Every structure is written in structure tokens, then in C-alpha cells.
Amino acid sequence: MQQQQQQQRKFGNFYTLLRMNLTAEDHSIPLSDGNSIPLIGLGTYGDPRTTPKGSAYESVKLAIDTGYRHFDGALVYFNEHEVGQAIREKIADGTVKREEIFYCGKLWNTFHPPDLVRPALEKTLKTLQLDYIDLYIVEMPTAFKPGDTFYPRDESGKYIYHTTDLCATWEALEACKDAGLVKSLGVSNFNKRQLELILNKPGLKHKPVSNQVECNPYFTQPKLLEYCQQKDIIIVGYSPLGTSRDASWVNLKCPPLLDDELLVSVAKKYNKTSAQVALRFNVQRGVVVIPKSFNHVRIQKNFEIFGFSLTEAEMKAIEGLNKDIRFVELLMWSDHPEYPFHDEY
């Protein structure tokens, strides 16, 4: 009990300092492997069927000009070529240096077998036309049948899964880090049990530095956040502003987050938007946020979270909004043996 209290004091003090010292120019926090990660990044997912070509390219260029240095992408987003082009052009014109950019890529479900891990990472590097990426994460703990199709299904339309050995996949990722292809390794959508599989793996060389999960004022992840803090794993929060209202994959039992009365009222006090308050809430907890937007006004607004700070009372009040309901449930894969969301956290 005493050790737990010391742990809480340690993190409490750290995040108080964090809250005071954040600036638009310097808002990176340390990772356990000696690297660091900017607390706000731009998510680059867009439905490839409906997103106009060039959206990611234009948005990343604008984001770099705005001050963003962290970009979250994936091979399965089908736009890494645009993101890479924007980054390379901004390096070429002298706006940024490569070492100032933090890019996170993801290992998709069809590439879990160890012999496919490095080719998948090399495909991302080739698409981006970069020599290394800063963070490479296992996108889901759920392996799919390997092959040319990212979403393999049988004749009846059922997804085709593959035997999952997360430790074997992790060892292949460790080899990629040792080869200099990636600076840091992490995971996404892992629950505590799945994290412990990696952390307790015999001969572990590189522990995961981050776990990317849904995290916002309606789904604050208190138990997973506390566990990860104890293990020195940074939480990266996706859907930090809630999500689109697309019923095909979003749980609509949750009302729109940004209309919440408390967030609106706190925003009014600081002459900010409810989105800015929601983002500020997470970064003050030490949670990295990666709001996705291709709307140029919103990209700029989402970055304006460093000129104010929430009081302890406001933080507690916003924590009280937690509904323990996910926007992103991914129920279409809930019959997978490694579906992560059956566990409490």
C-alpha cells in the first residue's frame, strides 16, 4: 500500500510539473528507452473510399507549419505516401529537420508471423521514403490470415483469423529496432494481460514504450492508465475528441463528446473550444493525444492547447464524466481469441 502511494505521489508530482511546463515549441515527454514523444500529434486516418486524394498531404504540410512534430499513420490507411511526401518536402524547404519529426507507423493484423514483420516495416519505410521511423506499434493484438488482403474473409463473409503468438511477433520487432529501422517499439489496443505477455517474456530485450488506446473524457481508462504508468508505458490516446458518428463502426450509445455541458462551460471560461479542453485534459494526465483532422481550421485550433491550464478541480470534474463506454468497440472482431476488450482493462 505504501509503495502504491509513493508511486501515485511520484506520478502526481511529475504530471503537475508537466502541466506547468508545456509549450507549443517544447511539449515532448520521455519514453522509457531514452527517446521522447511530443504530447500532441496529428492522426492521419481517413476512409480511403471517401477521402479526397491529397487530403493527408495538405494536412500534414499545414500541421508542420502550425507546429506539429508528431504524426500518427499506418500502412492500412493507404495514404502513407502522401504523409511521407509532405514530411520530406518540409525537410527539404528547411522548415524542419528529420530528427525533429516523430512518425508512428503500425504493424497490421496480416503481418504478425515473425518472418513478415520486417518486410511490413520496410514497406512502410519505402512508402514514406524515410530511412527510419520513430515508433512502430502492433496495431491490434488480433492476427489475421497473412496474404495480399488486409481484411481476409471466407465465402460467407466471416473474417479469417490466424494463430496469434504475440511474443514471437515482438521478438521480430526487437530485431527491427536492433537493425536501426525503428527507434522505439510499442503496441496498440492491448489490455493488461496482453501487455504482461510481452513484459514477462523470457529474454525481453526492448519493452513496449507506449500503448495506443481510445482515451477521452467519456472513456478515461483510469485502471489501464495507472497500470501503464506503473510500468513506465506511455498511453497514446486515439479518438481524444470522440469519433465520427458512423454507425457502421462507432458505438452511438455515447452522446457526442464535444457537446458536453461541462466541457462547453469550461471552454467558455478560458475562451477556448470544448475540443481544446478535452485535449488539454488528457495532456495534463500525461496522455499523448493524436486528434485526426483534415479540416485546416480544426488542425490549427487543436494545437492551441498550451496557453492555458486546467485547475485540479476542473480536472477532477472532467474525470467524473467517464462513462466507461467505448466509442470504438471493433465488435466485428469480438470472436477473435485475442480480442482485447472482453477484459475489464
What is the fold's blueprint, element by element?
Layout: H1 2-21, E1 28-30, E2 36-38, E3 42-43, H2 55-66, E4 70-72, H3 80-92, E5 102-107, H4 114-128, E6 133-138, H5 166-178, E7 182-188, H6 192-199, E8 210-214, H7 222-230, E9 234-238, H8 261-270, H9 274-284, E10 288-289, H10 296-302, H11 312-319
Parallel strand pairs: 3-4, 4-5, 5-6, 6-7, 7-8, 8-9, 9-10
Antiparallel strand pairs: 1-2
Strand content bin:
5-15%
Radius of gyration: 19 Å
Structural class: alpha/beta
CATH class value: Alpha Beta
- Would you tell me the overall average pLDDT? 93
Task: Give the SSE order as H and E letters.
Answer: HEEEHEHEHEHEHEHEHHEHH
CATH fold description: TIM Barrel
Distance between the termini: 21 Å
Strand order of the largest sheet: 3-4-5-6-7-8-9-10
Instruction: Report the uncertain regions.
Output: 1-13
Percent helix range: 25-40%
Biggest sheet statistics = 8 strands, parallel
Q: Can you identify the CATH superfamily?
A: NADP-dependent oxidoreductase domain
Q: How many structural units, i.e. domains?
A: 1
Number of alpha- plus pi-helical segments: 11
The 3D shape can be described as globular
Number of strands: 10
* CATH 2nd-level architecture: Alpha-Beta Barrel
InterPro entries: AKR, AKR1D1, Aldo/ket_reductase_CS, NAD(P)_OxRdtase_dom_sf, NADP_OxRdtase_dom
Domain NADP-dependent oxidoreductase: 40-322
Protein name: Aldo-keto reductase family 1 member D1 (Delta 4-3-ketosteroid-5-beta-reductase) isoform 2
Family: Belongs to the aldo/keto reductase family.
